[in-house]
C-alpha cells in the first residue's frame, strides 16, 4: 500500500524513490495525473542526477491538443514496496505519476485540503 497527501489545492502527492542504472537513487515528490497515460515524468535535472540514458522518444498530445516530442528513459521506481522498471518521460515540470504506473491499483482519496489518500492492490 502507498500513502500520499492531498495538498491545500487538492493535488495528490506521493514520495517516490527512483533508481538509475548505477544504483544512484533520488527521492522525489510526484503528483498523480490521470490525464497522463505514461508511467512517470521527471525533469531533466533529476534524470541527470540519476545518470539515466536515453531509451527513445515519445510523441505526446497535451490537454490543449498540441503535439510534442519528449525523450524517454528507463529507471526503477519503488512502488508498493517492490522495485518496478518503468519508462520515464523527460518533462520540464514537477514529477508526475501517470495511469500506466497506477494500472492494476486502486486509488482511494478524500479530496479535503491536507488530507490523505491510498494507492493499493484491490
Number of helices, counting only DSSP H or I runs of 4 residues or more: 2
Number of strands: 10
The main β sheet shows up as:
6 strands, mixed, barrel
Give the overall form: globular
- Give the termini distance in whole angstroms: 10 Å
The gyration radius over C-alpha positions equals 14 Å
Strand content: over 45%
Broad structural category: mainly beta
Helix content: under 10%
Report the order of strands and helices: EEEEHEEEEHEE
As residue ranges, the low-confidence spans are none
Strand order of the largest sheet: 2-3-8-4-7-6
Mean pLDDT: 94
Describe the protein in words:
- With 122 residues, this protein is mainly β.
- The protein is built from two helices and ten strands; from the N terminus they run E-E-E-E-H-E-E-E-E-H-E-E.
- The protein has helices at residues 44-50, 99-102; strands at residues 2-6, 12-19, 25-32, 40-42, 54-61, 67-79, 82-90, 96-97, 106-109, 116-120.
- The protein has a six-stranded mixed barrel.
- Strand 2 and strand 3 form a beta hairpin.
- The chain starts with a strand and ends with a strand.
